[in-house]
Structures are given as structure tokens and as C-alpha cells.
């Protein structure tokens, strides 16, 4: 009603002015209150209109469509409401997308396995993801800032943070954090400057490289050991060839001896290359569990038939203790053949002085404790026992390492490559099995390869296959 009375008040204004002008002093005094009242009324109506218009525009800014204020025509909907509403709704959608992206980024950073920390301009760790809090700064879970020097005392890291707080850039360096054992990290330090807020800081991303360094060291050791194993027969071959070309050229007896030496060393290199290729193929197959059936009875008989001439030459009596029938395994027959052949070959080479090698196959509804991760589960054990000199306890954990030998000279003299038990270990890793070793000096040795009787699940992690000392 007040908005509608505004035109009426404006129309009565000339009459009031006329009274004031032609009615003299008395008329002016009478007209003055009326003029003041009309002015106040007009101001109140204008303020009311501005408030209603402001509320209407605020509603549009929230993405809503409030009723049009009284006194305004449809033109305000077309020229003002529609564009403002469209912009407001687009702004709301953009803010929602930005909030979702911020939340997704926060969850991604929180879930990363590498520690990530944000260091502010005061050299304090202001934020850290779950991995960083678990390893370095558990107090940050309570929103407490921790000085950087309390977590990391590396001078090079502090210098990099100080440098990147002053300028934009990225630095990378390696850290060795004290402890038992020493933990080694590769650190990536990147500046973070936010122009809108003016906040400055540094993002510190750490990646543990201890395992990577260990793998590189193993690779380097492997190359060095393989080179050494090949260099020895090659040196012998070169010496034999030089002798055959020189002093033994016209000596039939010497020539025959050196030709036998050449043949022996060539066969040794061939065995080494064959074992390396076998080991490579087995390692490549570890992530894929076997799916084919394997009948152990003919497999064991074939291995013993193949190695019987070697046993007879070494004066060893091979004995087999195998119940029949045996349950069928889900296993790679070729790899199980390699596993058993290497165990029997080792027993003949290194334990043959006892004059006897026994192969025993046992089936368990509940495997014994020495079966490692298979303990208490259905399993089959392929055990090879010898009555040789035995193995000192300190050597047992390392027996499955490539080229590891308890007695290097004796092993080379017997024709071993140093890879047999490494092959056994990786076959057992693929089959989710376990190797148990029981040996003492003077008592001989027993190597038992435990294999699961149930089909290995694809999602199970491979067993370590390593040599564990049985009780």
C-alpha cells in the first residue's frame, strides 16, 4: 500500500506548495509539517524498496528464484533476474566442483604410501599425510605443528627448504635417517607459493629406497659372481688351448689330457648357462600360480633313474621311500622335476661320503611346524637326506642365495654351479611352498620341500621358499 501511495503523495505536492506560497506566513507554517511528512514517507518507501530489491538479488545470488518485488514490472525478470540467476547457478556448480576436487586431492594425498609433508615459512611441519604421520610425526594428527629439525636433522635438507622458501624451484636429494636399521630415502623438495593468500611453504615428498638399493646391490653381486664363475673355466680353456698349440702339440698323452680338460670345462660352462636360464624362467613364472596336475610317483622314479649313474659313480646308494598311491598335486611337473633333481644332485655331490642318499615322500593332513606357512595345512613333503659331513648352522640361512657355497673349492671340484638351491627356492615361491633344512656337522643333512595339496589361490602372496631351520 505504501508503494502505491507514493504517486498520490507526489501528486499532492503542488497543492501544498501553493498553500505555502500564497497563504503567507501562516500558510507556510501549515505546509511545512506536511512537506516534512511527505519527505519522510518518500525516504521510507525508497529504503523499503531498496531492501526488498536487495533481498531479491540476494536470493538470486543463492541460485533461487524469489517472487518479484512489488512495484517492478516483468522487465526486471528478463534483464536482471535471468542473467544473475544463470551466473549464480554456474558459480555454485563451480564451487561444488572445486570442493569435490579439493576433497579428492586430499584423499589421494592422504592415501599415498610415500610420506608427504608441508613445511610452512616458520620451518614447521604444518600438514602431513597418513604415511608421514605414522613414520615421523604422530602428533600432527592432533593439529599440532612440529619443528622440522625435530624430525630431520640433515643439514642438506634444511638448506634445500630454506632455499625454496625464498624462490620457486625443486630440489632432489638422498637422506639417511639414523636408526636400526638405517632408513634411506630419496627426497623431492618443491616450493609452494599461493598468490591469493600470500602463504609460502615447501612440499616434501619422501620415497624409501632401501629396498631399491638392496636390489641394485644384489644385481651387482649377481653380475660379479656370474662373471667370476665364467672366468674360471674360460681361463682354464685358454691355458689348455695354448698348451695344445705349443708343448703338447706332438705329445699324444698330454694332448688327450688337455682335451679332457677342455671337455670338462665346457660342460661346466654349459651347466652354468643352463642353470641361469632355468632360474630366469622360474623367476618370471613366480607371479602365476600353477594350474596343471602333477603325478609325483612317475616324476620321482624318473628323477632317480636319471641320477642313478651319477650316484653309482660316486659310490652312493640311492633309496626311495614313497607310499602309493599319492594324491595328485596342482603343480608344474617340469619345475617339480628340477626341484627334486637339484636336491638329490646336491646330496650326491656334497653328502655322498656317507654312502647313502634317501628320498622320502610324505603326505600330511596337517603339516608339521617346520613346514613354515604350510604348518597345519594339507601338504606333501619331498625330503632328501644324506649322511655326509653336514652343514654348520651359520651357513643354513644363506644356502639358497645365488652362487653361495659352504665350501667353494669342494663345490667347484664336484662340478656344482652354486645355483641349485636358488632354483629350489624360486620353484617353491611359485608353488607357495617352503624349504626346511635340518643339518649339523657330522650328522648329515635333510632338505624337505613342502608343497600345498590344495590349489594355490591366485591372490595369495608367494611364499619365501627360503631355507628355514627345522626344529
Task: List the keywords.
Beta-Lactamase; Helix Hairpins; 6-stranded antiparallel β-sheet; 14 strands; elongated
Give an overview in words.
With 471 residues, the chain is of the alpha+beta class. It has four domains: 2-83, no CATH class; 112-208, Beta-Lactamase (2-Layer Sandwich), CATH 3.30.450; 216-285, Helix Hairpins (Orthogonal Bundle), CATH 1.10.287; 288-469, Heat Shock Protein 90. The protein is built from twelve helices and 14 strands. Strands 3-2-1-6-5-4 form a six-stranded antiparallel sheet. A six-stranded mixed sheet has the order 8-10-11-13-12-14, covered by helices on one side. Strand 5 and strand 6 (200-208) form a beta hairpin. Helix 9 packs parallel to helix 10 (333-351). The longest helix has 38 residues, at 24-61. The N and C termini lie far apart (102 Å). The relative contact order is 0.06. Mean pLDDT is 78; it is low at 1-12 and 455-462.
State the total count of DSSP E strands. Answer: 14
Largest sheet: 6 strands, antiparallel
Strand content: 15-25%
Strand order of the largest sheet: 3-2-1-6-5-4
CATH superfamily of the largest domain: Histidine kinase-like ATPase, C-terminal domain
Kindly state the percentage of residues in helix. 40-55%
Overall mean confidence score, pLDDT: 78
CATH class annotation of the largest domain:
Alpha Beta
Using the coordinates shown, work out and report the CATH topology of the largest domain: Heat Shock Protein 90
The assigned structural class equals alpha+beta
- The count of domains is 4
Contiguous low-pLDDT stretches (5 residues minimum) are: 1-12, 455-462
Shape call? elongated
Order of helices and strands: HHHEEHEHHEEEHHEHEEHEEHHEEE
Q: First CA to last CA: what distance?
A: 102 Å
Provide the CATH architecture of the largest domain: 2-Layer Sandwich
Total helical segments: 12
Tell me the Rg in angstroms: 44 Å
Amino acid at each position: 500500500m505504501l508503494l502505491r501511495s507514493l504517486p498520490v503523495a507526489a501528486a499532492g505536492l503542488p497543492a501544498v506548495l501553493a498553500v505555502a506560497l500564497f497563504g503567507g506566513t501562516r500558510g507556510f507554517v501549515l505546509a511545512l509539517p506536511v512537506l516534512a511528512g511527505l519527505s519522510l514517507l518518500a525516504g521510507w518507501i525508497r529504503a523499503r524498496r531498496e531492501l526488498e530489491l536487495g533481498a531479491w538479488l540476494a536470493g538470486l545470488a543463492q541460485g533461487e528464484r524469489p517472487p518479484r518485488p512489488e512495484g517492478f514490472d516483468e522487465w526486471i525478470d528478463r534483464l536482471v533476474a535471468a542473467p544473475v540467476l544463470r551466473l549464480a547457478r554456474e558459480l555454485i556448480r563451480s564451487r561444488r566442483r572445486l570442493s569435490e576436487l579439493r576433497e579428492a586431492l586430499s584423499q589421494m594425498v592422504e592415501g599415498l604410501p610415500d610420506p608427504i609433508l608441508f613445511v610452512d615459512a616458520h620451518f614447521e611441519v604444518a600438514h602431513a599425510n597418513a604415511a608421514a604421520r605414522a613414520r615421523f610425526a604422530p602428533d600432527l594428527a592432533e593439529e599440532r605443528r612440529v619443528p622440522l629439525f625435530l624430525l630431520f636433522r640433515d643439514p642438506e635438507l634444511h638448506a634445500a627448504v630454506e632455499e625454496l622458501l625464498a624462490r620457486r624451484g625443486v630440489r632432489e636429494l638422498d637422506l639417511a635417517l639414523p636408526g636400526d636399521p638405517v632408513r634411506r630415502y630419496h627426497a623431492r623438495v618443491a616450493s609452494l607459493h599461493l598468490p591469493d593468500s600470500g602463504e609460502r611453504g615447501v612440499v616434501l615428498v619422501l620415497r624409501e629406497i632401501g629396498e631399491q638399493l638392496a636390489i641394485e646391490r644384489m644385481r651387482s653381486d649377481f653380475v660379479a659372481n656370474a662373471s667370476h664363475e665364467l672366468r674360471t673355466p674360460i681361463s682354464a680353456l685358454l691355458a689348455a688351448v695354448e698348451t695344445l698349440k705349443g708343448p703338447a702339440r706332438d705329445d699324444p698323452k698330454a694332448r688327450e689330457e688337455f682335451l679332457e680338460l677342455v671337455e670338462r670345462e665346457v660342460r661346466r660352462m654349459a651347466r652354468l648357462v643352463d642353470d641361469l636360464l632355468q632360474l630366469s624362467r622360474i623367476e618370471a613364472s613366480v607371479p602365476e600360480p600353477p594350474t596343471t596336475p602333477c603325478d609325483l610317483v612317475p616324476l620321482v622314479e624318473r628323477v632317480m633313474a636319471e641320477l642313478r649313474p651319477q650316484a653309482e659313480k660316486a659310490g652312493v646308494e640311492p633309496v626311495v621311500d614313497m607310499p602309493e598311491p599319492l594324491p595328485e598335486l596342482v603343480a608344474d611337473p617340469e619345475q617339480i622335476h628340477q626341484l627334486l633333481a637339484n636336491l638329490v644332485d646336491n646330496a650326491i655331490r656334497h653328502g655322498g661320503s656317507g654312502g647313502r642318499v634317501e628320498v622320502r615322500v610324505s603326505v600330511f593332513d596337517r603339516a608339521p611346524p617346520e613346514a613354515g606357512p604350510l604348518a597345519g595345512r594339507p601338504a606333501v613333503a619331498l625330503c632328501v637326506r644324506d649322511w655326509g659331513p653336514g652343514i654348520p648352522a651359520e651357513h643354513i640361512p644363506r644356502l639358497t642365495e645365488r652362487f653361495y657355497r659352504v665350501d667353494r673349492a669342494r663345490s667347484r671340484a664336484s662340478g656344482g654351479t652354486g645355483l641349485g638351491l636358488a632354483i629350489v627356492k624360486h620353484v617353491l615361491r611359485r608353488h607357495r611352498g617352503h624349504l626346511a633344512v635340518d643339518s649339523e656337522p657330522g650328522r648329515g643333512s635333510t632338505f624337505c620341500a613342502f608343497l600345498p595339496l590344495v590349489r594355490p589361490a591366485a591372490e595369495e602372496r608367494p611364499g619365501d621358499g627360503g631355507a628355514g631351520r627345522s626344529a
